[in-house]
Protein: CCA tRNA nucleotidyltransferase
Amino acid sequence: KGELFTEAHDVMKRLMAEGYQAYMVGGCVRDSLLGRPINDVDIATSALPEQVLSLFPRVVPTGLQHGTVTVVMPTNTYEVTTFRKESAYEGHRRPEEVEFIGDLDEDLMRRDFTINAMAIDADGELHDPFGGEADLEQRLIRCVGDAEQRFREDALRMLRCVRFAAILSGRIAKSTWRALCHEKSTLVFVAMERVRDELWKLTAGADPARGWALLLRSGLLQHTKEQLGALASTESTRWQPLLCALGRVTSPELRLALLLLGHEVDEGEAKRIALALRLSGAQQDAVLGVLRAEARLAAGGNAALAAAAVPGGAQAWRRPFAQALFAYGEDALRGWLACRSALAGVGAAGEPAAAVQPFLQHGQAWLEDIPVRRLQDIALTGSDLLQAAERVAGPWLGHSLEAAWLAVALQEVPNEREALLKYAVKEWKER
Ligand code: ATP
Ligand code: MG
Structure:
């Protein structure tokens, strides 16, 4: 994204033409030194927010009390923030009020880690007062200044520390780690939405196992405002195989589902954890869908998985499998297969891997071939059935449609209207 920097440059030039200082700062500096893709460029300036507002034709006063103005350029937007320091921290959170200052270095000093406390000026020169570049080369996460004090000021930084270690596959500096372990109980002051954002980025990143291993080792998650249950457990023998399996599924939703599955969390408790974590509706559906499929297919040593392990039972799994597909949808079933395969692949969750894996492979293959995926895919509608049955609508209708759908999915009846009508009418008469 060439324009991202060209336009950032234009913003800086405009500020500098008026005699203000302007730098690119924070995450974009870190990621560009790493050669990683950059989503947004943040700019720090000595100009006051009102001055920034008056200099650009299209501006949004996004966070004036924090000194942030969004400048809208033709293809990108930029957060332009006045140099500031955050003196009065209260309740282990970042302050509502900040003090504007005139000096870049002091602005960099309030930032959390050395790798996040660098700036690049309009000539492309790096300003790095805390040795961030060297730390970045070593993938070392180190607080700017006294780590204990920095974590005490804003407890979220502890979670950010683990997050950066995870996404960089990095290490945490000894003094920073010690401070984190010492201050961890102050995480209780942080809003769950902020916890979620960091946990989500950590889980979505390239090395989620690293992040979760550090969470486990520190015990940090035992101190969230709302309890995270099994996710905060420190029972490391249980965690070890799960950490190995974690990178074998790709989305953060499935990774979370995998951890819950591996800890044998039931659906009710999973729901509670999802709510505590303030997951969105879509995120909840994705996670809980997997746990629902688990309850239908594998929990309590029941049905499908067990049947698949018995000689001659190879076909027995098809019906519960199809029922789960009907009830929870294709995404849930695919997600469940992915999580179970990942767990079986590392011999986790007490699975006799050898017995389960062929079943999972069958399931996967079956899902590719299945003639129908949703109720709308069968050649029979509710009104067809109502007419033919000469009966008023009621719960029977849904049951019969489901039975017809299952018969097609299991290839017991061809997906043709006449055949299905006959089957469905017979089915409800016999019921
Ligand atoms: P990401 O790739 O997730 O956006 P980022 O480093 O840009 O990573 P942001 O939350 O966007 O993270 O913050 C931008 C910058 O603001 C950081 O690089 C850091 O310098 C500073 N910063 C953010 N949060 C804190 C905090 N809690 N304490 C101190 N400095 C912070
Ligand atoms: Mg950022």
